[in-house]
Amino acid sequence: MEGGNSPNLQIQHLPLATAAVSVQPHIDSFSYKENLIGALLAIFGHLVISIALNLQKYSHIRLAGSKDPRAYFKTKTWWCGLFLLVLGELGVFSSYAFAPLSLIVPLSAVSVIASAIIGIIFIKEKWKPKDFLRRYVLSFVGCGLAIVGTYLLITFGPNSHEKMTGENITRHLVSWPFLLYMVVEIIIFCLLLYFYKEKNVNYIVVILLLVALLGSMTAVTVKAVAGMIVVSIQGNLQLDYPIFYIMLVCMIATAIFQATFLAQASQLYDSSQIASVGYILSTTVAITAGATFYLDFVGEDVLHICMFALGCLIAFLGVFLITRNKKKSVPFEPYISMDAMPGMQNMHDKGIAVQPDLKSSFSYGALENNDNMPEIYTPATLPIVQEQHGSKGVSAPPYRVLEHSKKE
């Protein structure tokens, strides 16, 4: 009996073993498919956002001399740019629900690449091929490096996937690695904010590091909100969990403060510096946050991690070269050039015109108050009327003092 039953037992266990072997490749292929979907959505979103911003900028430039400050609202170009901007933001937002956070964040380099290519295509200056290559060689090299870095990021990016349910997000939120990371980030943020507000340490690294710390929390909360919405659409409702609304409020608050610090940085520094330094700092901090909160790199081998880090470095170098080639704005000189004034002595300090020495004379810029010059250059004074008061009941006649009137 036992010998007759043993073959049946073996036959019964064979399908289970076969099913167990066939399930794992299906999961791996599905996870890589999700990575590809998330990466394509992020690339599409950043590309559309770059086109939208350039369309709106083009509309503002065309109507720069208009008397109506809101004339661009009446143009189709501006509204088309606004529609594409919303579409691109939706694409980037939805990409967080499919791919890991550490894979989506570095793909923002696509917007820098697209802006550089759009700027090169729509150049209105006359140029020769040699001058064009000499002037924009850094942009071409930067675009090539950024594309290579993006390819490495997609190929060797982390492959960790889990459903963004309320239980999973709550479990990650109270885990000790993320709590330790939050304590360190809060301490660093408070120190930087103290030096920036109280000590007036307004270096670009300080401001953009504040933006990066806020941006890392924005990325973490965006992935949680987008993931819970997608899971709810698939049939498992997650919107009744309190953690969803906590993440939503944190996402909006950190995005607002992040935009505030970016606006302050744009008033102090050039946009190309903000783009390059901000991309490097924000990507680095966001990848660290994703690795501690969502455990993106758990289970990854050393080769994939090293190639992913190499892709990040190549993308950083590409963005730096692209933004380095942009023109810097020349500040307005409020003083009159002394070379244009006849008879004035030119004063230069290492080839740069400087303000003349006033020597207690009432002058401004290159306009001197010289007594030997004709009367037309002397300032006209108003007549002064003074009254001399004597004793009670006796009034002294007023007298007038006229100095350097125009008629004289």
Task: Return the string of H and E elements.
Answer: HHHHHHHHHHHEEEE
Number of helices: 11
Structural class, from secondary structure content? mainly alpha
Number of strands: 4
Strand content: under 5%
Average pLDDT works out at 77
Tell me about the largest β-sheet.
Answer: 2 strands, antiparallel
Gross morphology is: globular
**Strands across the major sheet, in which order?**
1-2
> Helicity, in percent?
55-70%
State the distance separating the first and last CA atoms.
139 Å
Region (Disordered): 389-408
Membrane topology: Multi-pass membrane protein
Family: Belongs to the NIPA family.
GO cellular component, one term: membrane
Which helices and strands appear, and what pairs or packs with what?
Elements: H1 2-62, H2 76-95, H3 101-104, H4 109-121, H5 129-156, H6 166-173, H7 176-197, H8 204-233, H9 242-268, H10 271-293, H11 302-324, E1 348-349, E2 352-353, E3 384-386, E4 399-401
Antiparallel strand pairs: 1-2, 3-4
Mind explaining what this structure looks like?
Helix content is 63%, strand content 2%. The chain has 408 residues and is mainly α. The strands form two sheets. Strands 1-2 form a two-stranded antiparallel ribbon. Strand 1 (348-349) and strand 2 form a beta hairpin. It is globular, with a radius of gyration of 33 Å.
Brief summary of the model shown:
This is NPAL3 protein. By secondary structure, this protein is an all-alpha fold.
